[in-house]
Amino acid sequence: MEGTPRPAASVPAAIGAMDGLIATSMVAQQEFARNLGLSPTDLICFAYVLQAGDTPVTAGDLAARAHVTTGAVTGIVNRLERGGYVTRQPDPADRRRVRVVAVPEAAQRVRAVYEPYYALLAELFARYSPEEVAVLNDWFTRAGTLAATYLAESCGS
Fold first, then answer.
1. Order of all β-strands in the sheet with 86-91
2. What is the pLDDT of residues 61-118, one digit of tens each?
3. pLDDT at 21 over 70
4. In which band, very low, low, confident or very high, does the pLDDT at 156 lie, cut at 50, 70 and 90?
5. Integer Cα distance of 156 and 68 in angstroms
6. Which residues contact 74 (CB under 8 A, 6 or more apart)?
7. Rounded-to-integer distance, Cα 14 and Cα 119, Å
8. Regarding beta strands 94-102 and 57-58, do their DSSP bridges make them parallel or antiparallel, or are they unpaired?
9. CA 20 → CA 14, 23, 24, 74, 141, distances in Å?
10. Helix 59-66 vs helix 70-82: angle between axes, to the nearest 10 degrees?
11. DSSP, residue by residue, 80-93
12. Residue 107 CB: number of other CB atoms within 10 A?
């Protein structure tokens, strides 16, 4: 598939488009969270648990990733556990630590909320050549790393 001709864009225009996407995505996250009966921060923490896959995360890991205190993450994990989203398991290497694991049925409920949106994104990506998708993937990966680094350096981790 050949790339489709695209209109020229300046860096400020691209940053403006990105800012618009981020703002809309933040509103969408709030709505997705509300529809699931969660706060946006609780949904973010649950997403981190899902991203970990078969590697359970600790409450400390969640606190660091979500930029909340360990005390705040305790409340988040409590709410997620009460809501049936996660379970706590003792860490076999250190019984003082707790690992947080997603409940499979809860993971499916969250996926059901996101799947229609991801299907639309897949349709959008299908309009790009494999080479263009590779560039987009590279950009998203690099921008994500840059954002995480900037956040850690600017706001502490």
1. 57-58, 94-102, 86-91
2. 999 999 999 899 999 999 999 999 999 988 888 888 889 999 999 999 999 999 999 9
3. yes
4. low
5. 11
6. 59
7. 24
8. antiparallel
9. 10, 5, 6, 33, 19
10. 110
11. HHHTTSEEEEEETT
12. 15
Distances (CA, A) of 43 to 7, 47, 56, 138: 37, 6, 17, 26
CA distance 8 to 141: 23
Residue 97: both structure tokens together: 């630590």
Q: Phi and psi dihedrals of 102, rounded to 5?
A: -70, 145
- Nearest CA-CA partner of 79 in 29, 36, 25: 36
Q: Tell me the backbone φ, ψ of residue 7, rounded to 5 degrees.
A: -65, 150
| pLDDT band at residue 55 under the 50/70/90 scheme | confident
Question: What is the per-residue pLDDT for 95?
Answer: 80
47: which 2 tokens?
Answer: 């997403």
Single-letter amino acid, residue 1? M
Q: Which of 94, 47, 70, 81 is nearest to 157 (CA)?
A: 70
* pLDDT for residue 4: 79
Q: What is the pTM of this model?
A: 0.83
Sole residue written with tokens 């996407």 = 21
Residues 42 and 110 sit within 8 Å (Cβ to Cβ): no
- Length of the chain counted residue by residue: 157
